[in-house]
Amino acid sequence: MRRKKDRLVVITGAGSGIGAALAGEAARAGARLILAGRRKEALAETAAHLPAGSEPILVPADITKAEGRLAIAEAVAGAGGALDMLINNAGAVRTGSIAGMTEAAVMEMLLTNLAAPLLLSRDLLPFLKRAAAPRIVNVGSMFGDIAFPLFAAYSATKFGLRGLSDALRRELAPDGVGVTYAAPRAVRTPAAQAFEELVEPFAMKLDDPAKVARRIWRAAEKQKRSVYPAGPERFFVLLQRLVPGAVDGGLIKQFTAYRGVAAGGAEKEARVS
After folding, report:
1. Cβ-based neighbour number of residue 134 at 10 Å
2. Where in the chain are the domains?
3. Whole-model pTM?
4. How far apart, in Å, are the Cα atoms of 104 and each of 20, 59, 98, 152, 267?
5. Where are the alpha helices (DSSP H) in 49-188?
6. What tens digit of pLDDT does each residue of 244-273 get?
7. CATH number of 4-272
């Protein structure tokens, strides 16, 4: 079995936010890194802030496209071919009323947040199976448990990612591949620009990406099934599952109070790359 410091870790959406912070966690643990994202300059910025001695492989790639996923697979093959951890972190956020949401916006979120993690996991599975204790980490969202108004399409993709994680965990267990699903609440990242005006009306709290990444990394290291925020969010997730009508009432009340400000439901976007 390879030592922890020899492990190979792929992180998508590594150019900013949680992905960049996860790169730091993995590097401090001695892992070898393959960092993927749409923008080469953002990946270089992440690499520049890693501990001395880190030599990450940077792969500018759009994981919604076959050629982007192939580039990552080729990087894994070139790094030895045994992949210890795949962290599916890349994501896209667009908010606004469903009436004003364009088809292009919906499809972008479906491809980036759900189809791409599924397809990349499929494409890298042969490399994962070569490792001693491989793991897939899917970074979802609390919006994948509690669906907010103006986040309909985004929530749908994160609900889907949570379901994908459950299915893969059961399907890949006989092959020794573990799956961790992470559901952070709103995080103080560039992606939060898509819903900054909704933070106060919906009483959201923005977490520090470094702290979120630390919790996710520790959960993956401990081979946990899932990781959720500590605090009242755990209660609301339970309430959503047991008494969804109570959650409906609270969110509808908040949305009704905000609706005048949100007239027109203008679409806003942000992307984790």
Report:
1. 24
2. 4-272
3. 0.89
4. 27, 26, 13, 15, 11
5. 66-78, 103-110, 116-128, 152-172
6. 898 888 888 888 877 755 454 455 555 554
7. 3.40.50.720
